[in-house]
Amino acid sequence: MAQFQRPTLCCCRKVLTVPSKSCEGGQGLGQCRLVDIASASNFHCFKLRHFHLDLRLNFAVKEITGWQVLELVAIQPGVQTLVLDTHPSLLIHSIDCKVPGTTGAQNISPSLTYRVDPFTDYGSSLNISLPAYVIRPHRAFQITVRYTTTDGPAIWWLDAELTCGQTRPLVFTQGHSVCNRSFFPCFDTPAVKSTYTATVRVPEGVTVLMSASRSAYSKQDRVFQFSMEYPVPAYLVALVAGDLQHVDIGPRSRVWAEPCILTCAVSKLGGSVERWLNVAEDLFGPYVWGRYDIVFLPPSFPIVAMENPCLTFIISSILESREFLLIDVIHEIAHGWFGNAVTNATWEEMWLSEGLATYAQRRITTEAYGEAFTCLETVFRLDALHRQMRLLGDNNPVSKLQVKFEPGINPSSLMNLFTYEKGFCFVSYLSQLCGNVKRFDSFLRAYIEQFKFSSVVAQDLLDFFLGFFPELKESCVAQREGLEFERWLNGCGPPLCEPDLSAGGVLTGPVQSLCDLWASEPPDPEAIANFNLSSWSTFQTVLFLDRLLDRSPLSHEVMGQLSRCYSAQLDEMNAEVRIRWLQIVVRNSFYPDLPRIRGFLHKHTSRMYTVPLYEDLCSGVMKCFAAEVFYQTQARLHPNLRRTLQQILFQTSALPTPTGSVPSLLHPTPSSPSPTPSDQLGPADPPTTGTIALRDVNVSA
Ligand SMILES: [Zn+2]
């Protein structure tokens, strides 16, 4: 692959840049290396102070109509065009301009001329010509964009049948990574943060929630008002509207859900959320967002959970898997510090959010549930990382922490386990270097204090680390042979080192022993009977099943024995356990358990469970069975998921579909069919089997 040019910081210190050809010879910095946004050419010419959304939701025609007011200040003189990111699904009606504090001709809100140009398959470029009198450095002006948006990648309209209660429709948005340009025109980069307010008008009986620190409702006008007082990037603006009710579960937290699942959701979380927040505050300093609420969304939610500030979005399907629910919520809480307060400035360094949040999540679970539990969960995830690595090969560029995007790449498509787990290992290594986990906690507290509400690049973190521990800087830890920081960031392959997880041995030991017993020829039923799966935790059981899956294909005799031993018992367990057993069934073509697959797919309609199973069914000999189940259940699937499954079913190759996204990482997978991985990488990069590998990862935490 093309050699990666080491990025440097733009003058605003927020943006990665590389010298362009014309700049060779030290003529200065070239264009910002933000190939995923149309606004890259000029967003740093303006300061976005604030924006306001005034929206009306129309469920009947699945439209959001209204206007957006952007409050901007020109930083550089002579800029005549404002470029924003937008999307073909967003129809612009008019654009006006106003300069507050001016009178007469200068304040008549003239209509501005604008042009929408194609940019990528996930967005367009909105070019607004600014009147000359606006372009005065450091003077504020307002741009008002009137628009209608329908069903772009950010906006998910659910008919009533697709909700949990099946009585009223629901709509939610999902901005990560580059989808919100179809929700409102914006600088769709994590490098730009601003406060926002919103007014949302809805039909009677609909409740609206947003990722905002304050909200109010006027029953008479059926208008919801929101204010986010802290600066956030565009991707963290989120909205959900439907038949939602709440129960307070702590002094700053409430659970929101459709009425039919609210009691269950509240009972599963109970008083835990405030406890987790308190542990996190002890470790990383004050929670800066005020509220921490959670909204449970129907199974059509395309990912497991999303860390929208003040309001975590989470899929209701996870409710039955207690330990996964716990890990997912704690992970989203950790984002309150890592990812939301301090954000990666570019999507090429997503590990700054996910790797640090994963580390913080594990610090919280260590304090709240002990080291053994945390190590077990880590072993389970690192197992998955190594599985992915085996499939990708050691030199695959997606295994880098600093991924290089080429134009046209959708950043969401390159989210993978390396973002989380290799990032986690690097952060653990930094913690190890300073010799004491508590000292590293204090470093993280200082890091948050230093950078909160801003966006950073890896160099900011590492410079601050070496400044915080001058003795480490003096001993040149950044250049330690084989463990160079540069190699961590830009090297392909597995983590350069992994943390000591031996404290998990008490929980992982029995799992490995049972796996070994099943691997012996022939398996010894008496020895196996000494292990009782029902006394195990979910993470132990899924680790056991994942390791069995790694040993597939298994002989028909062993499959028969496994089925007699476990099948009925596993069928009573949660979906995270069941899907793993069913994948073993499919990959070993074990027909006696086919009815269990049918039962599972009739019950579970979320992407995180259906896509991996359909991919397995279709890449083996059970494609006809998959088609039959699909026709029986398709009416209850979201159109996007239906399309994905159709593509899986009707592909001619036996290979897994390129549209099958990561089954269920902690976070966003593309909300609509995405390009194949080989399209996503640049021409200089070798083709990758990324999708095949990602689907095999089998992780849903
Ligand atoms: Zn995350």
From TrEMBL:
GO molecular function: metalloaminopeptidase activity; zinc ion binding
Residues that, per the record, bind Zn(2+): 331, 335, 354
Name of one Pfam family that matches: Peptidase_M1
Annotated segments matching region Disordered: 659-701
Keywords: Aminopeptidase, Hydrolase, Metal-binding, Metalloprotease, Protease, Zinc
Lineage, opening ranks: Eukaryota, Metazoa, Chordata, Craniata, Vertebrata
Membership in a protein family: Belongs to the peptidase M1 family.
Annotated catalytic residues: 332 (proton acceptor), 420 (proton donor)
Organism field: Salvelinus namaycush
Co-factor note (free text): Binds 1 zinc ion per subunit.
Named cofactor requirement(s): Zn(2+)
Keyword Protease among record annotations: yes
Organism superkingdom: Eukaryota
Protein name: Aminopeptidase RNPEPL1
Record carries keyword DNA-binding: no
